[in-house]
Amino acid sequence: MSLAAAPAPALTTATIASIEARLLRVPLTRPWAADVTSVGVIATHLVRSDGAEGWGFAWTPQIGAEAVRALLEHDVVPAAVGRSAEPGDAWQGLWEHIHEAGGGGVTTIALAGVDLAIWDAAARAAGGSVSDLIGRRRASAPVYGSGVNLHYTLDELVAQVRRWVAAGLPAVKVKVGKPDVAEDLDRLRAVREVLGSDRGLMIDANQRWGLERATRSLEVLAEVSPAWIEEPLRADDLAGHTELGARLRASSGIPIAVGENLHNRHRFADFLGAGAAQIVQPNIVRVGGITPFRQIAEIAREAGAALHPHLLPELSGQLALTLPGDIAEPWVEDVEDAGFGELGALDGPTPVAIADGRLREEPHLGLGLRFG
Question: What share of the chain is helix, strand, coil (3-state, %, to 5)?
Fold first, then answer.
């Protein structure tokens, strides 16, 4: 009789057995514009071949939610079923499958609905959270107050900033881009007066300027010491951001932040490689989920750039806690009264808590984000 050990049984990787998607329209307490009164959430439910379940979502403000759901149902889900349910395995093949419909945008937003559900299922099957599965690098992350406030009166803007200060937030972000930069400066002076010198002030032009106007405007707005200027130019203007970055380095030194409208890791590499940005802000849903977000984080780390995830604090806050410890501390963006929990969209408690200007996780399984 042989004493040799019996061979270990082959490990079988679970596959994706099914995915369902449904569209929810979540009204905003504070409309982001006259025509942006709600956000679209495409909630996904994934079942693996081993019976494990995961919940994810895709997301878009007002525009495109129906298109995302249609792309999921007609193109992404049929291509996903039968593929590996191991986090990260299926993403590249699915992106290549739908790439002819676009390398980013609706396509990557739809992919996020699958990718997030895959990660959620894996963490739930392991009995922990997604940050447990990845590896948490920090216990908390700083939070800054944010709002879509260019249309606010000066009094409304100041009142909003006072609420953020009262809540203990260490920094705020304000929209700029009024027709006359003098009005922007007046508004920012009033904000800075409320903040004092010990709190950060970020500014966001939301792609409203061209190169020359951005140059002139930032010469004026440098007075209030902005921590960064976000999307000063059209989001895909690589040459313009590169030139503006050179001009700012030779003058005020205000860093450029981009990323909410860069939809795949290749564009982030382009911008960082060209010196067109010093800060990147990937939106985890818009880039296609956790898998590409982690790849973008590595690109940023190698480039020595800061990374502060865009919007969705109940998701991005969890991932911020997993970012490498050798990069700048990631800031989490919290848009006033726009969290899924605050909007009553979740079937259960929020997976994160914000207090004393910092975000921490609450006990939960997976991503802890299931929609009612």
Answer: 35, 20, 40
